[in-house]
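Ticket #4471: structure export looks truncated?
Reporter: QA, pipeline team
Priority: medium

Steps to reproduce: submit the single chain below to the structure queue and open the exported record.
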Amino acid sequence: MEKISFNALTKIIRTKYELIKFHLSERSRRIWAANEAKSIGRGGRQVVKTATGLAFATIQKGMLDLTQELVDQRVRKKGGGRKKKIITDLYLKQDIETIVESSTRGDPESPLLWCSKSTRNIADELNKERDRVSHTLVARTLDDMGYSLQGNRKVQEGGDHPDRDAQFSYINQKVKGFQANSQPVISVDTKKKENIGNYKNIGQEYCLQGKATEVKVYDFVDPVTGKASPYGIYDITKNNGWVSVGISSDTAECAVNSIRSWWHEMGNASYPNSKELYINADGGGSNGSRVKLWKIELQKFANEINKTIHVSHFPPGTSKWNKIEHKMFCFIAKNWRGTPLIDTATIVNLIANTNTKSGLTIKSKLDSSIYQKGIKVSQSEINNINITKDVFHGEWNYKITPQN
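Actual output as written to the record:
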């Protein structure tokens, strides 16, 4: 038999390879190449390498595959391929969350978070020192974390203060400092008032077909049952909360008394060695930055627990950025959707049975105290407050120390 030259063999193998290469997987390609090299004999691997461009290592791996029985349909062995970036870069997810943390917006009636920074801008910040991530990977990671990029959305409730973002950053840094020192950080606010009685509650729940719960046609307030004013405290670090369900006016006295209840029921046990307490609150309402009674009641509370109380208020028109809105209140609304809030016991139980996959737990209690509206505060009482204003926007950021 006439011996075929190297060039002729190479041409034959190249022609065969060009015809079938697009129909081969990674594994079948190397097995085919190994089989051709084996059939040629001596010098076969060099011929196949020259004809196909496959590496010697690939052909050698195909030789091993030829000797093994096919156990599964894997092209590569389990664990093969490039590792995910979030596995090789252990701090990537944490760094992404740090960047977007101060720029997140929350809807109080929805657990969805959305980010006001584009994925390209986030990627640029992450890649300042070294190449770490693409904007597409940032988008996928944010999606896994529960964030999504949104278009324009009506979120401003009032004027846009020029130092709004600076205040967000200030609060963010102070929260991190308190958490690093194992000091309590809470977010506080009053949830939307709810009619008590057999009224329609937004949402749906499963019922037998045609057996939907019947409720009142009109939502006029019942003078006997009145309205419930849930005041909430959310522990940012522990991911748990407290809600005092008030039946009286939503006043500063009511707000501080709710914080007091949280401290004695939950906070003291969670932070037995704490020396300070940091409160994040809205700029208005019963815990507003300009409410004098709020500061007087906080002074009483600081004296009682003998701890310095730090307070930071969110700028005007940014109440929805308050953590409690999209970390706790939204889940309460979701839990009681479609259920008439017929009495205070129902409200308290529905709140207390709210939980999430992330571990959120809430305790709730009825506050039957009657709080007087329109309490006048004297100048001497104001002067007696042991308050120290921070250098940066002291009207928003201050601390009240015990008078003991």
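Status: closed, not a bug. The export was complete when the record was re-opened. Leaving a note from the reviewer for reference: The chain has 14 helices and twelve strands.
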